Structures are given as C-alpha cells and as structure tokens.
Amino acid sequence: MAKKFEEAKIFSTSTSKELAKKIAKAYGIPLGKMELQRFKDGEFKPSFQESIRGKRVFLIGSTFSPSDNLMELLLMIDAAKRASALYINAVIPYFGWARQERKDEPRVPIAAKLVANMLEAAGASRVITMDLHADPIQGFFEIPVDHLYSSTIFVPYIQNLNLDNLVIASPDMGGSKRAYAYSKFLNSDVVICYKQRKKANIIGKMELIGDVKGKNVVLVDDIIDTGGTLIKATDLMLEKGAKSVRAIATHALLSNNAQERIAGSKLKELVVTDTIPRKILSKKIKVLTCAPLFAEVMHNVHSHKSISDKFIM
Questions:
Q1: Within the chain, which residue ranges are assigned CATH 3.40.50.2020?
Q2: Nearest 5 degrees, angle CA 304-CA 309-CA 311?
Q3: What digits encode the pLDDT tens for the residues 241-282?
Q4: I need a labelling partner for 140 at 20 to 30 A (CA). Which of 122, 134, 184, 257 fits?
Q5: DSSP H or E stretch at residue 50
Q6: Comparing C-alpha atoms, which of 62, 75, 91, 70 is closest to residue 123?
Q7: Count of alpha carbons within 13 Å of 302, Cβ hemisphere only?
Q8: Domain 8-148+292-310: assigned CATH number
C-alpha cells in the first residue's frame, strides 16, 4: 500500500504573489486563499481563508524592503501555528537582511541572526531559500534549512550561449567561491575583482586579478543593488581587453536608478531571477524564473524525497 502523505497547501505574502502563483502552478495545486486586513495606522493582520489543520503549509515570501514583508511572513507563520498546521515551511526566495551576517564594526547588530531567531520563534518548521548572501547564515538556525543555488538555473543558460574563450568573473573577493563553482561546470578560467569600499554602495578602488584579454566574460553575483559594482567591473574588464561582458545575479534589488544605469552601461546583458518582483524597464535585463526549482524542491520535501541534486555548487 502506497504511503499517504498529509495534504500540502501553498500560501503567499502580498508582495510575492506573482512568483507564488508560478510556483503553485508548477507544483500542481492552486494557491491558497489569504486575506490581509489593514488598519488605518498601517498595522495589518493576515488570515487564512481555508482550513490548514493537520496540513503541511508552504508560506512563500521574499523579505526584501520594506520590513513589512518580513513582518507579514512572521505573522503568517504565527497564524499557521495557531491554526494547527502540521508543518510550517517558510519559503523565502530572497532572504533579506543577509548582508548583516557579522559584526564588521563595533556596536552594530547581526541582523541575519536576529531574523533567523524570529522565524523560529514564530513557529517555522523549515526554511527553503536560495543564494544566501553568506553561506554560514544556515548555521544561525536550529531548524532545517534547504539552501538552493541559482546555478541550477544559470549554468544551462550560459551553456546555451555557446561563448568561446569563456571566463567566469567575481565582482569581489567574497564571491570567489561562487565563481569557481561556475567555472568547474563550465570548464572555464576565473578572474576576480578586488574592491575597496568607502562605505556601503560606494566603491573606492577596484583592481583585476587575472587575464581577460580577448575573453567573453560572465560576471556572477548573488545580489544586484545599485549596479555600481557590476558597471565598474565591466568597464575595468573592457579596459583590460575583454571581448564582451555579461552578468548574472540571483536577486534583483535594482535600487534607485539601477535599471537606467544598466541600460546606459557597456554591459552586454544582465540576467536575473524573479525572487524579487520588479518591473523590468531595460531591454538589457533578462529574467529567468526560479518557480520550477522551488516547486520541485517543495514537492520533494513534502514527499520526503532527496533534494541533493539541486545543490550544484
């Protein structure tokens, strides 16, 4: 007799519904019904509009700015716990606050650890996320964390470009591990940019480690915020003789006038995923969906199957 699993249901925070609908469709079940009541002072209250008692629930929500997105997810987790859900899986395609994962100066918080504590305190049974800004954040949790890599999406895309003299590049020293992982699967060389920041989002100096002359370069990063790093790295590599420069970045924050800057840059194209809902204005920016990846992993988690083949890096 085949083993019968508890019923699964998928719900979404208000700002991640577009991606959640794609994930639910790929999973093969409809997106669950939620209602978000807002009070005049800005306070809000999410509520499930269907029974989740004894069910495994997947709550999808990227925690990008503003902090309301994180708070809404926390309230949904608490509501699911109080509604007697059997398992509460927090699916966080983009894990915000991850750039504050250590004390890099006196008297500052470790925000990523605080967020991990809050998710656990709210009642999450498991976290499923992709491309954390720092891998050690997984260790901040005392519950299972499935840390997926966007390389399962981007590597096939790069292979289909059929670029000759391919070089994988990291825009900073911190991304060197990611660059070497891509190079292993693409059988290419690696170059690294060494940058010094004056302060957050402002680069003081950048130098290149490695040779890009006559090469087609693909820069790999986890986050693109203002676009300053990628544009500066692109200009540097073209000055050093690169044939072309493309970039891939998992999470498209694209703050301020980042899209305009990308459009006016010498970057051939920027490829991102849809972990963060953004209206794309530039023809240079291409969006690949992460929905099938999350849907498959969620299905395997629900049916207690292995997901090890989703960890390319």
A1: 8-148+292-310, 151-289
A2: 105
A3: 999 999 999 999 999 999 999 999 999 999 999 999 999 989
A4: 184
A5: none
A6: 75
A7: 21
A8: 3.40.50.2020
Q: Are the C-beta atoms of residues 63 and 97 closer than 8 Å to each other?
A: yes
- Read off the tokens for 145: 């964390």
Could you tell me where the DSSP H helices lie in the chain?
17-27, 68-82, 111-122, 151-161, 176-186, 228-239, 258-263, 291-302
Residue 268 annotated in active site: no
Long-range contacts of 104-112 (CB under 8 A, 24+ apart): 112/137, 112/140
Cβ–Cβ under 8 Å, residues 119 and 77: yes
Cα-based distances in Å from 214 to 159, 165, 171, 172, 187:
19, 7, 19, 21, 17
Q: Which fold has domain 151-289?
A: Rossmann fold (3.40.50)
Contact between 10 and 20 (Cβ < 8 Å): yes
Is 228:260 a contact under the CB 8 Å cutoff? no
Options 9, 22, 55, 195, the catalytic residue: 195
| pLDDT per residue as tens, the chain (313 positions) | 345 557 899 999 999 999 999 999 999 999 999 999 999 999 999 999 999 999 999 999 999 999 999 999 999 999 999 999 999 999 999 999 999 999 989 999 999 999 999 999 999 999 999 999 999 999 999 999 999 999 999 999 999 999 999 999 999 888 899 999 999 999 999 999 987 665 555 556 788 999 999 999 999 999 999 999 899 999 999 999 999 999 999 999 999 999 999 999 999 999 999 999 999 989 999 999 999 999 999 999 999 998 887 765 5
